[in-house]
Proton-dependent oligopeptide transporter, POT family (Flavobacterium segetis), 601 residues
Amino acid sequence: MNQNTTDQFFKSTVLGHPSGLFVLFFTEMWERFSFYGMRSLLILFLTASFTDGGWEWTRENASALFGSYVGLVYLSTMLGGYFADKVIGFRWAVVVGATLMTLGHASMAVETEFSIYLGLVLLVFGNGFFKPNMTSIVSEMYKDRPEKKDGAYTLFYMGVNAGAFFGILLCGYLGEKVGWTYGFGLAGIFMFFGMLQFWLSQDIFGDIGLKPNKESKAKAEALDTDKRNPFTNIQLVAIAFSSILALLWLINDPASKISGGKINVFAFLGQDGNAIAIVSALVVFIILLIYRFTQYSKITKEKLIAVTFFAFLTIFFWAIFEQSPNSLTIFASDYTDRVLTGNWSVVFLVINSLITILPLVIITWVLILLFKQTFKLYAIANIILSFSFIIIWAIAIWMLTKDYYTAGYLNLSDSTLQALKIDKVTISLTEVPATWFSTLNSLFIISLAPLFSKWWESKYNPSANLKYGIGMGLLGLGMACVAFGASGIEAGAKTASVSMIWLILVYLFHTMAELCISPVGLSYVSKLVPARMIAFMFGVWYLAVAIGMKGAGMFGENIDKIANEHGLSYFFWMLTIISVVVALFSIAMTPVIKKLMHGVR
């Protein structure tokens, strides 16, 4: 075998991959656990009544804050990526991000007005430092082993989905059934464990991700032989103007609504100040983007236009897909019959037990394999990781015990109930948590991803436009399911009892849509964009994602207005129509975009 710079990582392997990959696997798993765990609770907490421990906000205000939060999370990745590349390195960026997120979750667990807002700010910056740099370390570890990179990312994203699943399942359960503080706090505890485990195991990555020095910068510049097209001073001013205006808008939009207009930095622009500000920012940025495209050769310019086209479609995808923690969670909480009795109660309890225990068994097995390979060198890190799993197992078993007891299938003495902190019940029933439905996305991804991967590798692999068209069509089909399910809800109704089957179908179709669009988009950025422009165009891509996230919040803001006037079903039919129109537009543009891509598939 030819020796190369990555051979050192393959001397200690787990499942045929470097042990270091699984250090990243568990670090990323706990980060996603904390991110999705908190996110699943945010809208429910903000809209819950005072008696239920919430803030009793309107859905409009809650969605406005949620949209700005997730939008800022994606915009902050550009800042975190820059600091990691130029100043502090990948490792310190991960540690700084994890620390900020730990403090953010701890702050949210306090549940005061100041602490919640402070927590969200810390989480935005923490995500920005953490999110882009974990994948950078994976990429560096496999840079001389491209044939193993696909398998590495598959394992890595299994960690992502495992974290998302358990975060929503357990944080959501504790938040809804026990108290919001417990849900927010649990998210922070496991982010802290993830950070400690990463920091104590960092030597396993060799020189990857260290703080840049003169020698490493000179080496990177020597390898980069691409022609530069630097930004002029005027272009930098335009970027600064549009960026500052967009950031102010993201913050001011929810602030002005929540405060009833008392806080409004764009008040001097009149009643439509917010709209004027964001439109101005977008116009300036689009003009700059178009001008930059004109500075390149015909082929490069056309490829960049193709990437921009897919980024435009991505805005609509995320704006509708991200209704999951927003309007779909509200639908699950207030309009879905989540109480099960008889055989259906048994079916749910068995299924919930299986989807909780089996993944834990598999991941614990992976943990044991890592333990065997790395304990001698990284004993404390392994002990911390093992301790975190003991806690997860304890919470999972406690949750299932509580569910079987409240459903009437398990008898517990008063002393046992007191020891387990479980309230005594007199009426046996099973109530599915509203956040439980969001776990289906991760479960369906783990189940369906291999099938879609095989499809993309076969001779039937569709074109980029067709993938987007299929994805947006599936997104529309999912929304059509919930729209049909909500058809019997009268206009203005605040509660209803719609069957759970509609939400299950939504998450099935939306997961298939995600598998068609989400991994494909970033792949085309790397395939179509010249190396010298990759950072800028990834910035454009994440800007599109951020706009989509904020768009999800803006859709959610209008759910009550539309539902009160036309009925809840009308709201979901609107999202269905938008999805289908974008799907048809993508397919119709196939000949044009195919030409612009110049043979790239």
